[in-house]
Design a protein that fits this description.
CATH topology: Aminopeptidase
Distance between the termini: 29 Å
Helix content: 40-55%
Strand order of the largest sheet: 1-2-3-4-5-7-6
Number of domains: 1
Structural class: alpha+beta
Order of helices and strands: EHHHEEHHEHEHEE
Strand content: 15-25%
Shape: globular
Number of strands: 7
Oligomer: single chain
CATH class: Alpha Beta
Number of helices: 7
Radius of gyration: 16 Å
Largest sheet: 7 strands, mixed
């Protein structure tokens, strides 16, 4: 089987990229906590994640495939915040907005600031394309660049299964699991030191 062709995403692709993230994240425990109703979740997540893909296309690096079966969204630790995020996101999320805002605050409160780094904000692979190495392939270009420039990387794993993938790529747990509220599922902050020859 030929390896997947990974390319940089371009302006104008934010909606397609967000659709992939939403579909890949739909069944995650944290997504069900954010929006328990599956129908509402399917309506909210694509519009919510479009704010992130638009921002990353402008301020970061996004890798994908021609069929959008996977997406990796990276930001430098120096990237600005999304302009007017809550003002734009709250109408999208409706009465679930406080949950999204608490999740964002949890991420902000636990994000490391001790060193410059690459932030893997989102890694998404469509269910039908999982377990075929696509997630690893999507991370490889930025990991190669990070190793070359001796830059660490950071992420929050959304599940223990995701955590296992990242452990295989050199990430280690960074502190204890985090939760935006006591009833929320655990998320796993992770840090990757660059690999040097």
């Amino acid at each position: 089987m030929n390896p997947p062709v990974i390319r940089r995403a371009k302006d104008g692709e934010a909606a397609a990229l967000a659709d992939t993230v939403a579909a890949a994240f739909h069944d995650l425990d944290v997504s069900a906590w954010l929006v328990p109703d599956p129908g509402a979740r399917a309506e909210i997540l694509p519009r919510h994640f479009r704010l992130f893909t638009e921002h990353a296309l402008k301020h970061g690096t996004v890798h994908t495939t021609d069929d959008y079966s996977g997406v990796a969204v990276w930001l430098p630790s120096s990237a600005p915040d999304i302009d007017d995020f809550e003002t734009r996101n709250n109408p999208i999320c409706g009465d679930r907005a406080p949950y999204f805002n608490d999740l964002g605050a949890c991420f902000d409160d636990n994000h490391p600031h001790h060193a410059a780094h690459h932030y893997l904000q989102l890694l998404a692979v469509l269910p039908g394309a999982q377990n075929q190495g696509l997630g690893s392939a999507l991370m490889k270009p930025q990991h190669d660049h990070a190793d070359l420039t001796r830059m660490p990387a950071y992420l929050e794993a959304a599940s223990l299964r995701c955590r296992e993938l990242y452990l295989r790529h050199g990430y280690e747990d960074l502190g204890q699991p985090i939760r935006p509220r006591p009833d929320a599922p655990a998320l796993y902050p992770m840090w990757r030191q660059p690999v040097t020859a």
